[in-house]
Amino acid sequence: MKKYIRWIRQNINAIYRVLLFIFALGVLSIIYPNIGNFRYEYQKGKPWMHETLIAPFDFAIHKTEAELNENKDSLLANYYPYYQYKPEVLEEIKNQFNSNFEKKWNTYIKTENFKKLNYKKNKVAIEKKRLLLYFHDIISGIYEIGIIEDSNTKNQLPEKINRSSNNVSEKVETKSLYTSKIAYEYISQSIKNDFKNQSYHIFFQNLNLDTYLTPNLLYNEDMSEKVKNSMLSNISLTKGLVKSGTRIALIGDIIDDDTFRILESLKREYESILGSSQSHYLIMGGQSLLILACLVLLFLYLRNFRTQILEDNKKLLFILLLIILFVGLSSLLIKFPKFNIYIIPFVLIPIVLRTLLDSRSALFIFIISLLLCGFLAPNSFEFLFLQLSAGIMSIYSLPQLERRGQLVITAIITFFTYSIVYFAFAITQEGSIQEIEWKNFLWFAINGLLLTFSYSLIYIFEKLFGFISDVTLIELSNQNHPVLRQLIQHSPGTFQHSLTVANLAEAAINEIGGNPLLVRTGALYHDIGKMKNPIYFIENQMSNRNPHDNLEFDKSAQIITDHVKYGVKIAKKHKLPQQIIDFIQTHHGAGRVQYFYTSFKNKYPDKEIDEEKFTYPGPDPFSKETAVLMMADSVEAASRSLKEKTPEAIENLVINLINKQIAENRFEMADISFKNIHQVKHIFTQMLINIYHARIEYPEEIKRD
């Protein structure tokens, strides 16, 4: 039992990676819809490339979406919405009007305009009754015809409606009905025609007649939708029948509209039958094998070409979750056919992975994702061609993400790539511009718009999975960063040393391949630990006095080696990424502080040396970038101590220092070749010669009397 536990502990990371792939396989198998796949691939306008196809069973020919829409439009042309007539509204309005009329009349008869009429008391009562009856008659006439509610029809009434009253419906033309606005205009015009006395007009205005024009024909949404859905449900989804044994296509036949429709109908019936038969578990097994094949391809790529990604559990988890996410979105759209699969921003995969990993990995993982999603897409070849074209263009258009504006340009390029390739497919298949589904261009535009959000996603992924992007590196390399500002203030000599090391390392990485922005940023931060005791480092000593002269050699060595430990502590305090901390930890590796080690050995030849006190904590460099930084750091520091900075002396210094590091096996864990190291030596030599080149001595001006 202990043996198995020990084996598990020793291989815990490998077991975890296997479990991640098993998890991905299980989730993807569940996500996949349990339907069979039609065995034939075909495209409209292209020849049939398979054997002669005979109908294996009777099946109906499904109508196209355009035909169904035409049927719907034809059917709905005879559809009229239902409005409920409310007779009780009139009585409520009359009661409100009578109350208001009484108040307004009593106020009106006291005005000077009315007194000028010189009506006797009985005449006033008669006039009041006449006006009240007049308004009752005109309002009753309007409400008997009906005031229609128009708020539910966006102010565009249909030509006819079904008017329901007492469970009886009748069709009525809307032009014979009133709206609140038309009713008010009708009353106003009637008053002008029937009453010539202007004093009455003022009274009518005070009555606020528009407040008594409440609709009594109300839209009956439940009834309208029920009748509408009932009518639509009667539309037949099919037309015609293909009998079993009927020849559908011969090899070489061009697939025209009719044949394409028959093939689509056969495909739908075939997949439906497979999904509902006893072959259900076989289909699931087949799908799982296809998914497994794609995951094995991904594993082999990572094992052979990107071992560092495979061994990084966070990065591997991120890649698998990204694939699961897009396969899940593709599967989800099958359940929501209103949305097209082209709305999914698949190009986010190469954009994000190119920014966080590298172009090669981004393209390969993108292809794996497309293969998995291609099984779910309606036209697999068209889907793969479109997405692959757009993905490759996005990688080319975004070599380095340094500004948000680059994403906008990439989104525009992606939109045009989708549009051009789709247009080429459409005219090839349809042979006519009129038959192109222009709606797809809207999906492409939405797709491009979604790509602009990748900037925020990249930031989130960085924080969750420990990545570092070029955008973050640019921010970190800004000299206004708090850590660099402190370094400039407390250790100006160290900062100048770091700048020179950054220039050397960046030039070397540009030549041998790697991430120049990463190595430059790492170089700027590699010595931040010297801020703890800056005066103990020679580049910060402004006088001939050296504080190490008053210390024992082992104490001095301890101060020197501790700058790595303090640097890591400062970096973690300011939440610098682990990739930058790697440069701090590895720029001396596990090497010795040779000066103090040799001095101690010479002074105390018989004393036993505690090697740990003279050794940096390490580890040694484990990447090309950290290895180059170690070389640049040692070469730059040593070059300052040269008495004669001749080209020969500089070249010998560079060669000897780097050869010594090789002899000490400092680069064993780094993926750097001897050829790369030779190139680095040459670059360092040339750059240092240029830095220390001789300058012309300016002549003094001769003073003449």
UniProtKB/TrEMBL annotation:
Residues 490-647 form the HD/PDEase domain. InterPro entries: HD/PDEase_dom (IPR003607), HD_domain (IPR006674), HDIG_dom (IPR006675), Metal-dep_PHydrolase_7TM_extra (IPR011624), Metal-dep_PHydrolase_7TM_intra (IPR011621), PgpH_phosphodiesterase (IPR052722). The keyword Transmembrane helix applies. Keywords: Membrane, Transmembrane, Transmembrane helix. Coiled coil: none annotated. The keyword Transmembrane applies. It comes from the Bacteria. It holds the Pfam family 7TMR-HDED. The chain crosses the membrane at residues 12-32, 281-304, 316-333, 339-357, 364-386, 406-428, 440-461. NCBIfam families: HDIG. PANTHER family: CYCLIC-DI-AMP PHOSPHODIESTERASE PGPH. This is HDIG domain-containing protein. It comes from Ancylomarina euxinus.
